[in-house]
């Protein structure tokens, strides 16, 4: 465990959505998308906004102009809205995941463990049924934790910004 994980825990306890955050959300999400984002805990919402801000900044630096990438950053964790984890529960799962070297994943019948590991797939399914999103967008949501996929500039950027926040 690193000091960064301690910082993440602190951030999760003190997270608030600011007026600037709301403006960013309003700029990229429609009413239905905002409702999905609001199903996340406040700290997960703040995380998603932070990921989106970093995506905006880095995409400009890297010459990637893709507004749907910012929207994907805001919605990448919507699968977590199906079963919320409070900061302590999430911390316990992260610690046990590290100790068991990922074997905790076998306990996927426990809904909170299942959400931790499969929120990307659940978010993909949640968004796919709306019929509003193209396959590329859904691909980004589904694969934002997939470390086997490399050399995809947009996905790599989303993964990097996600892990930085």
Topology overview:
Blueprint: H1 3-14, H2 19-28, H3 31-38, H4 42-61, H5 67-75, H6 87-99, H7 111-128, H8 135-142, H9 153-164
Q: What CATH architecture do you see?
A: Orthogonal Bundle
Q: Given this structure, which CATH class is correct? A: Mainly Alpha
Distance between the termini: 16 Å
What is the radius of gyration?
A: 15 Å
Residue share in β-strands: under 5%
General form: globular
Helix content class: 55-70%
The class by helix and strand makeup works out as mainly alpha
Largest pleated sheet: none
Care to count the β-strands? 0
Low-confidence stretches: none
The CATH topology label is Hypothetical protein af1432
Number of helices: 9
Overall residue-averaged pLDDT value: 93
Helix and strand pattern? HHHHHHHHH
Quickly count the domains: 1
Summarize the structure in words.
The chain is mainly α. It has helices spanning 3-14, 19-28, 31-38, 42-61, 67-75, 87-99, 111-128, 135-142, 153-164. The protein has a single domain, classed as Orthogonal Bundle (Hypothetical protein af1432), CATH 1.10.3210. The chain contains nine helices and no strands. Helix content is 67%, strand content 0%.
């Amino acid at each position: 465990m690193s000091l960064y994980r301690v910082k993440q825990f602190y951030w999760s306890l003190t997270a608030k959505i600011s007026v600037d955050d709301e403006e960013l959300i309003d700029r990229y999400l429609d009413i239905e998308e905002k409702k999905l984002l609001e199903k996340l805990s406040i700290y997960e919402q703040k995380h998603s906004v932070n990921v989106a801000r970093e995506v905006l900044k880095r995409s400009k630096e890297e010459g990637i102009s893709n507004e749907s990438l910012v929207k994907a950053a805001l919605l990448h964790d919507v699968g977590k809205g199906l079963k919320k984890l409070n900061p302590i529960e999430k911390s316990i799962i992260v610690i046990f995941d590290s100790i068991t070297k990922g074997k905790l994943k076998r306990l996927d019948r426990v809904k909170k463990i299942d959400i931790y590991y499969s929120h990307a797939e659940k978010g993909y399914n949640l968004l796919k049924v709306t019929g509003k999103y193209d396959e590329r967008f859904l691909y980004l949501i589904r694969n934002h934790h997939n470390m086997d996929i490399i050399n995809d500039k947009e996905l790599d950027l989303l993964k990097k910004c996600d892990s930085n926040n």
